[in-house]
Amino acid sequence: MGDHIGAERKSPLTTYKEAVDWINGLIPFGIRPGLSRMEMMMEQLGRPERRLKFIHVAGTNGKGSTCAFLTKVLLATGYSVGTFTSPYITKFTNRFQYNGDDIPEETLLDLSNRLRPVVDNIALTELGSPTMFEVSTALAILYYAEVCVPDVVVWETGLGGRLDVTNIVNPVVSVITNVGLDHTDILGDTLQQIAMEKAGIIKPGVPVVSCANQPEVVEVIREAAQRNRSTLYLAGEQFTYERLNYESSMQSFHYAGPFRSIDIEIGMKGEHQIANASAAMMVLEVLRQYMAFVMDDEELLQGFRNTKWAGRLEEIGTSPRIVLDGAHNPEGAETLVKSLPQYYKYQSLNLMMGMLLNKHHESYLKHILPIVDTLILTEPDFRKKMDVNKLLEIVEQLKPKYGKPNLQIIVEPDWRMALEKLKLRTEEADLGVVSGTLYLIADVRGSLLNLSDSEKGW
């Protein structure tokens, strides 16, 4: 038998920290597209994913918010809900939620010990070791299928769709929030290519809901739905939404769908959140019409009103006023620029940003620069961070054309020092904004709220 049973002999992980370190220790295996390792893991665990009802959510922006609306409304209407999201904002356990609460640390430890021999055995095959994200996804499936068994699991893709690890499941509804240019190094650099990856979550006969609006993207999604004989519910066609009003704390819109119309109020800021809430409403309507879900309107509307999502136009502190927003791609920047003057009055706008390495920061900055008075460039505390001087080079190139004449630029690689400078700069009448990668938002948020057990990552 030789050494091949070495996988079985390792002493068990004994603490939550050991379990998280073991999972994060798989990070060097990177993101390796394809589902073969995932298939093998599920096979060896007895196919637990087949026992659950998933709502599978893909898209460039708005996935997290759409998952938040679905979770909150389903909980408000009496259903138990598992929510699997990434990356997490404060703690590793955030990604595996049941009824709004994180997975208990000891449960994560138990499940890690169950998974470890399976992972070690697969590592000995020609497929190589499962990645960190694959193991996290398998852990989520085990948690939902065997420990808490929710009525429905809100299931967010990690990257893309077609080859994403989460695509191992066969959902009851698929959602593609929208399609924009992000992760182009992995998903392709045209909207059509990215749309084809996202549309890869569409499964035979499973209805799909989408708020995508670019003609070339809609065409890709429509073709994939037809090929799979899936009913497509597309914003602007099968359902529509129209903003009614917005005040500082609430905004309302009129939703009209194939089954009924209703006015909905949400506490999340920004016009884009109306699109996300409408997509969530369309999904809930599909569950009601075709899967016998029963939802009381009063509870449903309460769920929408009470949905919050960290790091999306989130105001923290009043003196100085600081808003966090995880806009990190061109579409996110455009939305942020449109939303800030709608919700805030300010004399000067001071913006601190840090990014990960990838290609589209020029178009992000083209949107942002025209509205900024002071720009503070920093680096997220993360392995794939973009060097602050490289970011400065892009800003210097774009500044003559897009920047305000008196734009001030501060370069501070240490995000903690950068945050202090932002606070000092932002006077009573001003607004401070922290934007860019969610890894930076997670740290800044932890610091502003004094969250001591803030961890972060994929």
TrEMBL record:
Record InterPro entries: Folylpolyglutamate_synth (IPR001645), Folylpolyglutamate_synth_CS (IPR018109), Mur-like_cat_sf (IPR036565), Mur_ligase_C (IPR004101), Mur_ligase_C_dom_sf (IPR036615), Mur_ligase_cen (IPR013221)
Top enzyme class: ligase
Pfam families tied to this protein: Mur_ligase_C (PF02875), Mur_ligase_M (PF08245)
GO cellular component, one term: cytoplasm
Domain Mur ligase C-terminal: 311-437
MF-aspect GO terms: ATP binding; dihydrofolate synthase activity; metal ion binding; tetrahydrofolylpolyglutamate synthase activity
The reaction(s) this protein catalyses: (6S)-5,6,7,8-tetrahydrofolyl-(gamma-L-Glu)(n) + L-glutamate + ATP = (6S)-5,6,7,8-tetrahydrofolyl-(gamma-L-Glu)(n+1) + ADP + phosphate + H(+)
Domain Mur ligase central: 57-283
Chain segments annotated as transmembrane: none
Essential cofactor(s): Mg(2+)
Alphabetized PROSITE patterns for the sequence: FOLYLPOLYGLU_SYNT_1 (PS01011)
Superkingdom classification of source: Bacteria
Keywords (A to Z) from UniProt: ATP-binding, Ligase, Magnesium, Metal-binding, Nucleotide-binding
EC number: 6.3.2.17
Family in the record: Belongs to the folylpolyglutamate synthase family.
Cited PANTHER family: DIHYDROFOLATE SYNTHETASE-RELATED (PTHR11136:SF0), FOLYLPOLYGLUTAMATE SYNTHASE-RELATED (PTHR11136)
Protein name: tetrahydrofolate synthase
Organism: Paenibacillus antarcticus
